[in-house]
TrEMBL record:
Family under the similarity heading: Belongs to the acyl-CoA dehydrogenase family.
PANTHER family, per the entry: ACYL-COA DEHYDROGENASE (PTHR43884), ACYL-COA DEHYDROGENASE FADE28 (PTHR43884:SF20)
InterPro entries: AcylCo_DH-like_C, AcylCo_DH/oxidase_C, AcylCoA_DH/ox_N_sf, AcylCoA_DH/oxidase_NM_dom_sf
GO MF, one annotated term: flavin adenine dinucleotide binding
Domain of life, source organism: Bacteria
Protein name per UniProt: Acyl-CoA dehydrogenase
Cofactor entry: FAD
Species per Swiss-Prot/TrEMBL record: Pseudomonas laurylsulfatiphila
Keywords assigned: FAD, Flavoprotein, Oxidoreductase
Length: 333
């Protein structure tokens, strides 16, 4: 029910034209207000607190839909922030909340939070600082864009006197939840890229027939479809279980596998579109640019594969298959 309602809003308000407008620094207020006023930011909030009280597995298709539409606002992060602030004495503030799983103090005393998703537009950031949970006002930060065309990601700097006190000790959950969000978004954006590529290959005629009829093209499409399917299955791992926060090991596998698929999926998509595939006018770049950005957000496959590998090496008598079966939650859990 919630998925269909959100997808209706996205189809009406999150069009490619609107995504491009937000990338040009136009206001995203209408889109954000539609999501906020409909109560969709409270999907993880318990019912007795006025929320929907959804389980993690119910969130997956919603977060995938956000990726499939290249949603240019931090809706998934704002939903997760409310779950991460579950034990905090104060309620989450109004406005756009984003997540930042890594922060460090510089020699000059500034707190540096690198590559914050939606850092250019967020009102507040929920930040992990060595395990402590900080809620920081982004209007007090110096925002440094990444320089990538259309990206809303930025590195943020806060002075010491603007930090305040920690609001919890579950800061490490921020990195895990944000990685799970990016895994789901990657899966959704890949599904859209595959759908666009299939449609083009069926419509584009060369040598008297659709290029999708040529065996070489079919081979590339099958490789692309395999990677997209594997990514969706991997993303599902992070959203299985009855906890409010995705489990670490399942999320590590999900983020690693989805990030690994990005280079191959994006390369095939652009190759099959040919010359038009590299143009700004084609909607494909709205998704492939984000896929490359999300691949490294909260750590690329190298980082998360390292987490999984270290855990496996602590159990020398356990095979890889046995390890995966035991560290990933069952769908019936």
């Amino acid at each position: 029910m919630f998925t269909e309602a959100i997808e209706k809003i996205l189809s009406d308000l999150c069009t490619p034209a609107r995504v491009r407008a937000v990338e040009r620094a136009d206001s995203a207020a209408t889109l954000w207000s539609a999501l906020e006023d409909s109560g969709f930011l409270e999907l993880l909030t318990p019912e007795d607190a006025g929320g929907a009280g959804l389980a993690l597995n119910a969130l997956l298709p919603i977060f995938v839909a956000f990726g499939r539409c290249a949603l240019p606002v931090p809706a998934a992060q704002s939903i997760a922030a409310r779950a991460l602030m579950r034990d905090c004495p104060s309620a989450p503030p109004a406005g756009m909340l984003t997540l930042a799983g890594t922060a460090h103090r510089q020699p000059d005393g500034l707190l540096c939070v690198p590559r914050v998703a939606f850092g250019l537009m967020a009102d507040f950031a929920l930040v992990n600082l060595e395990g402590q949970l900080l809620l920081l006002d982004c209007s007090l930060a110096r925002r440094q864009p990444t320089g990538v065309h259309g990206s809303q990601c930025a590195t943020l700097y806060w002075s010491q006197d603007s930090l305040g006190s920690a609001i919890g000790n579950n800061g490490e959950e921020v990195r895990v939840f944000n990685a799970a969000i990016h895994a789901a978004a990657i899966a959704g954006a890949m599904e859209q890229a595959l759908a666009m590529t299939l449609e083009y290959c069926n419509d584009r005629v060369q040598f008297g027939k659709a290029i999708g009829k040529f065996q070489a093209v079919q081979h590339q499409l099958s490789v692309m479809a395999e990677q997209v399917a594997a990514s969706r299955i991997a993303a599902e791992l992070a959203f299985v279980g009855d906890s409010q926060v995705p489990p670490l090991m399942a999320t590590a596998i999900a983020k690693a596998r989805t990030s690994m698929a990005v280079p191959q999926v994006t390369a095939i998509a652009h190759a099959l579109f040919g010359a038009i595939g590299v143009t700004e006018e084609l909607d494909l770049q709205l998704f492939t640019r984000r896929l490359h950005e999300w691949r490294v957000s909260e750590g690329s496959e190298t980082y998360w594969n390292g987490i999984v590998g270290q855990a496996l090496l602590t159990q020398p008598n356990v095979t890889a298959c046995e390890f995966v079966r035991h560290v990933t939650p069952s769908p019936t859990a």
